[in-house]
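Exercise 7b. Backbone tokens:
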């Protein structure tokens, strides 16, 4: 699976497996394994969703030999049975309306329906995207982020 995730070529994967196992495997075996993984990934990405929550985390991404801070969107689904599972992850370079519309359309293709309310921090464009993607729904800022935004405008001597 590590080869698959890192997009290692079939030839290179075969050479590594041969070296590590001390046995020679056929290139067709590596291709068969990759095909089975493709099917599992496709099934995983296209399963139905009943509820979605997204969180943001700062990650380091080494591009062209340097580090820069990016945001990792992790989408978590909750079933009616209260089981939660990670539905997907994506590095986000922007939080604009177009990014959110694309994400919401992908979630709708996976079966997300009946969204009435989306609560998040003040992501740029999310409110507009929510209204476009889920007609009749509303967006509201979460309580914690609302308080933080208010506190930015209140002088420190008046915080109490």
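Sequence design result:
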């Amino acid at each position: 699976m590590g080869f698959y995730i890192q997009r290692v070529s079939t030839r290179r994967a075969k050479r590594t497996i041969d070296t590590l196992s001390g046995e020679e495997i056929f290139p067709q075996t590596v291709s068969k394994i990759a095909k089975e993984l493709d099917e599992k990934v496709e099934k995983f990405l296209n399963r139905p969703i009943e509820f979605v929550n997204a969180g943001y985390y700062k990650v380091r991404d080494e591009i062209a030999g340097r580090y820069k801070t990016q945001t990792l969107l992790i989408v978590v689904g909750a079933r009616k049975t209260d089981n939660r599972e990670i539905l997907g992850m994506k590095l986000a370079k922007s939080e604009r309306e177009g990014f959110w519309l694309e994400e919401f359309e992908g979630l709708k293709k996976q079966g997300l329906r009946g969204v009435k309310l989306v609560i998040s921090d003040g992501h740029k464009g999310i409110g507009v995207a929510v209204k476009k993607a889920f007609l009749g729904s509303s967006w509201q800022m979460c309580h914690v982020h609302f308080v933080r935004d208010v506190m930015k405008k209140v002088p420190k001597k008046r915080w109490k």
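Instructor comment: The chain has six helices and five strands. Residues 112 and 159 are 41 Å apart (CA to CA).
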